[in-house]
Amino acid sequence: MMYEFKVSQLAEEFGVHRNTIRNWINAGTLPAKEGPGRKYLMKFHDYQKLCEKFGREPHVNPSNHVDPEVLGTLEETDIAPLLINGVKSELVLDPSWADSCLTCGTCASACPISGVDGLDPRKIVRMAVLGLDKELVDSTWPWKCTMCGKCEEACPENIQIVALMRKIRGARERDKVPGPIHKGVVMCLERGNNLGIPKDDFIFLCEDLAEELAEDCCPGFTAPLDVHGARVMVTVNSKEPFGEPDDMKWWWKIFYAAGESWTIPTENWEGVNWGLFSGDDESMKTIVGRLVDNMRRLNCKVLLLPE
Ligand code: SF4
Ligand code: SF4
């Protein structure tokens, strides 16, 4: 026995958007085939399964029943347990996205890298609500996304696309995180900064730079390391002491000229939290927690992050 329906009718029956029904059909999660008169056909058994998943009674209407011989049989495809009955994806933050995303593509229009290697935030949201978690986690798209948030800002339905991207990143096995960012997180956890600069080397470098600055243009300048009670606690992007130490002098000069009360902690001074970028919430929290501990230890009021 076949069940005949219009998209609008089924959308109303299950309280979802018409596009949601179309997406289910297109994705094959709703095994229906197009019939005459802009109607669709599915096996009555599949309709019953759909009702079960939504916890409702089948709407038995004889006019919806069609002899399958009239239009042939549908493929034997079970309703995948991933979308129907709400979203089963581990990545989706809010199951209502399945319905609220209009597939309007406004997000894709706003995205500065839309189209790069096929990246399209609309597609990513769709795949997530369809439960295609593995495909998303294995894809390179979330790592190409700059997390600028333009898509989210443009979305008329306030879908949290950036949080979704982070979640997808976070779901990837850590040893498969591309590039050096996970290694940086591990290094930061172990040694207090992303590039593993030892404490003594950092202190030596800061004092050396301070001497140069005092000689050049800031008489009496000394590196304000671990100054208890300073107003501002300054963190450092480890790439500066590692590769571009002279760049640190620019903002030191500004503090000097402004007469600011500031300090740099000699441990856990890293200001770039790569856990944020790799989707590693636990590590991110640990690294943030260390900064908070430093603020408390030094009794500072303002935290300055370089990025
Ligand atoms: S802008 Fe929002 S509603 Fe439109 S396709 Fe993108 S995520 Fe969906
Ligand atoms: S956050 Fe990512 S997907 Fe969204 S607009 Fe920026 S780059 Fe594109």
How is the secondary structure organized here?
Elements: E1 2-5, H1 7-14, H2 18-27, E2 33-34, E3 40-43, H3 44-53, E4 65-66, H4 68-71, H5 97-100, H6 106-110, H7 121-129, H8 133-138, H9 141-144, H10 150-154, H11 161-171, H12 181-191, H13 199-216, E5 232-234, H14 239-243, H15 246-258, E6 262-263, H16 274-278, H17 281-298, E7 302-304
The structure holds iron/sulfur cluster (2 copies).
The site of one iron/sulfur cluster (SF4) has 14 residues, from helix 6 and helix 7.
Provide tags for this entry.
elongated; alpha/beta; three-stranded parallel β-sheet; Multidrug-efflux Transporter Regulator, Chain: A, Domain 2; binds iron/sulfur cluster; four-stranded antiparallel β-sheet; 307 residues; 17 helices
Kindly report the spatial arrangement of strands forming the biggest sheet: 2-3-1-4
Report the uncertain regions.
Answer: 66-85
**Tally of helical runs:** 17
Ligand roster: iron/sulfur cluster
Could you tell me the strand content as a percent range?
5-15%
- H/E element string? EHHEEHEHHHHHHHHHHEHHEHHE
Radius of gyration from CA coordinates: 28 Å
Structural class by secondary-structure content = alpha/beta
| Sheet having the most strands | 4 strands, antiparallel
Mean pLDDT: 87
Terminal Cα separation, in Å? Answer: 62 Å
How many separate domains? 3
What characteristic shape results from the CA principal axes? elongated
Number of strand elements: 7
